[in-house]
Amino acid sequence: MSPTQTSKTWHAVLHRLQRDGIPHVLATQVTSAGSTPREPGARMVITADAIFDTLGGGTFEWQTIAAARARLDEQRYGLSLEAFSLGGRSGQCCGGFVNILLEAFPGAEAHLAIFGAGHVGQEIVKLSAPLPWQLHWYDSRSDAFSGQYQQQPRLRCYPLQDAQQSVAALPADTHALVLTHNHDEDYALIAALIERDDVASIGLIGSDSKWTSFKGRLKRDGYSSEQILRVRSPIGRIHTTKLSNKTPYAIALTVVTELLWLTDTPSSQENRGLDSQALRTLLTDSPTITS
Questions:
Q1: What 8-state DSSP symbol labels residue 253?
Q2: For residue 201, what are the CA distances in angstroms to 129, 151, 190, 195, 244?
Q3: Which pTM was predicted?
Q4: Which of 117, 221, 259, 272 is the 20 to 30 Å CA partner of 129?
Q5: Residues near 92 by Cβ (< 8 Å), separated by ≥ 6?
Q6: Sheet of strand 24-33: strand arrangement
Q7: How far apart are the first and last CA of the chain?
Q8: How far is CA 125 from CA 76, 172, 213, in A?
Q9: Lowest pLDDT segment from 55-69, 108-122, 145-159
């Protein structure tokens, strides 16, 4: 067995890779003729640095792995079909013929940290499920996360015990949203986030008066104007006028729409480090979404 190959079955690891947002390819033998190492329905999973399960070994399996990794390298996601004549293309003496379906999955294109599992946080998580984002969800309450979220792909739930430690654990270029049930908790998170220069964007839920209070407190605690300006508050205000509909779903919808612009590739990398005023200008000037 190759050092990069593991004994884990394809179905066990497929769930983990989809949950964790890691790019991967599911290879399925769909047809066969003549003598072949495995039967139709055999599967394996390939990532950039690991192989899970097997299609039977031999040259054609390594050709399958190479084709899968080429798709990952070139970011060619979706379905493709590879045909192998084992006696011809693969040089194997069994001499059969197989078709291998490759399904390449992109994994996560952006990281989103959601601090708070209240009504708005729950709606943001639900709306984000079909999007290629890796979600890091935090809450300090022991009963915050219900079982329905355990099967959502690209979602990890964490207990929020210490703001500094939780923020320090975030990957670089994460987009952070702060919307906990406790204003002191919100403040501790904002203070920790603005100390990190590599956070892609920082959003805080709340009213204008809440943000005015936070700004004064941050200034008194010695944070610079440049650090404070990185915070976007209230979140989800794509236009200059306030949204009259304040239901959790409506607020979450505007927040996810805002994040779609902020995470848009390649502009997301160019926009990292912009202050809230520059981000507001960017969002206001963005083209209108049409059906």
A1: H
A2: 20, 27, 11, 12, 25
A3: 0.71
A4: 272
A5: 58, 59, 60, 86
A6: 5-6, 51-53, 43-46, 24-33, 97-105, 78-85
A7: 51
A8: 27, 20, 28
A9: 145-159
Helices 119-128/248-262 angle, 10° precision: 50
As given in the structure block, the two tokens for residue 112 are: 């989103």
* 140 Cβ contact partners less than 8 Å away, ≥ 6 residues apart: 159, 160, 161, 180, 182, 185
- Sheet containing 155-159: give its strands across: 155-159, 133-139, 110-115, 175-178, 201-204, 231-232
Using CA atoms, how far apart are residues 5 and 167, in angstroms rounded to an integer? 34
Half-sphere CA count of 279, side-chain side, radius 13 A: 30
State the CB neighbour count (10 A cutoff) for residue 256: 19
110: left (phi over 0), alpha (psi -120 to 50) or beta: beta
With pLDDT > 90 as the criterion, what percentage of the chain qualifies? 55
Structure tokens at 200: 């892609």
Helix 248-262, helix 276-285: angle, nearest 10: 90
Taking alpha carbons only, the member of 238, 256, 239, 240 closest to residue 248 is 256
Taking only the tens place, the pLDDT of each residue in 183-207 is 999 999 999 999 999 999 999 999 8
